Amino acid sequence: MTQARTHLVKPILLIIIVLSLVVAPQENRRTAQAGPLPDANPPTGTFGYPEYINPLTGLAVNDPTIMNRRPVLTKVSNYPPSGRPHAGLSYADIVFEYYIGEYTNRFLALYYSNNAPSAWPLRSGRLIDPQLTLMYGGILVYGNADPRVDAVIVRDLGERALSFNMSPCPPICGDATHSVAGVYVDTAAVSEYADRHGIDNQRPNLTGMLFDKRVPTSSQLAISLEVNYISWNRGEWRYDADSHRYLRWIESWDEGTKYPLIPLVDKINGQQIAFDNIVLVFSTYVEYNPTLHDVLIWDSSEPQRAILMRDGIIQEGFWQSIGRTNPIRFTDEDGMPMRFRPGNTWMVIVDNASKFDQIDAGQWQLLFDLP
């Protein structure tokens, strides 16, 4: 019996050693996953994020409780130019830019992990606004709107639509949405107002974007991008290699009819607007009259063209709508999630008839057009 036990001990010890070598690394991996991920070291996202990571930027947030709310989406005017410089754009996680007619454009700034004490100047709502607001689970703040547009906004968003006429100060303060003085929005006060008045302000599911610090392979440089609506309305993004970000320039109205480009700064901090990712989203505009357009975002379930610029390179890919209450989904040419640089994103929504060309090495131009 003693000899039999001796023969059994060695195999048993061998099994224990092998199991320890297999199990220990798994335990170590579980421990590592539970630790901090500063700056969302890539890749992060697509199907889930730690609670302290902003799913719209891929960055760690110092105070994650700020994200226990809905994003605040605020309309920001770009015309008339007397309303410039804009306030609060540099605090946004995402800014949507789109055409509103008569060669002019407007911005919709999304605030989630940051707040702007004064997002300014507030202007009217458009038909695309409730689409984007629902897709990003947000609360929309806008000036006034064409009665037909206002009816759609209220129908689609209900109590999550806050207009200048129907809201106190704070969160919306100022004299009139068409005046030079304009109206500004305190985005933190919007969330407080929603909580105080029983407006649904629960944290939404914002999965969908993938963030990766590693630069994707690309043979195409993206040193600059000009977005041109007309000679007197154009903006340009210029890549800054030191910060790995794109700096915004805009036409000046102080030089007669020449309209040279000057840095676009944020009125709050005096710094030039800078974004980590610039995306061109090609879609279909529906024109009802010269100043009334819809954009087919919700109903774009089939992949459509998207172009991402990050880290001085360009990537072709696709975007599509995954239902009406999910963020826009971006994929590369291989159908894999498009990899954004951790940070903020500026999305330019253009019609499919627009022309996108390389005018020099690494220099690109988007000429907005409608069919």
Index terms:
YerB-like fold; single chain; 4 helices; alpha+beta; disordered N terminus; 7-stranded mixed sheet; 10-stranded mixed sheet; 371 residues
Question: Care to describe what's here?
Answer:
- There is one protein chain.
- This protein is of the alpha+beta class and 371 residues long.
- The protein folds into two domains: 64-196, YerB-like (YerB-like fold), CATH 3.50.90; 210-367, YerB-like fold.
- Helix content is 17%, strand content 33%.
- The chain is built from four helices and 24 strands.
- Strands 6-5-2-4-3-22-15-18-19-20 form a ten-stranded mixed beta sheet. Strands 10, 11, 12, 13, 14, 23 and 24 form a seven-stranded mixed beta sheet that branches. The chain has a three-stranded mixed beta sheet with strand order 1-9-21, with no helix packed on it.
- Helix 2 packs parallel to helix 3.
- The radius of gyration is 24 Å and the shape is globular.
- The model is unreliable at 1-40 (pLDDT under 50).
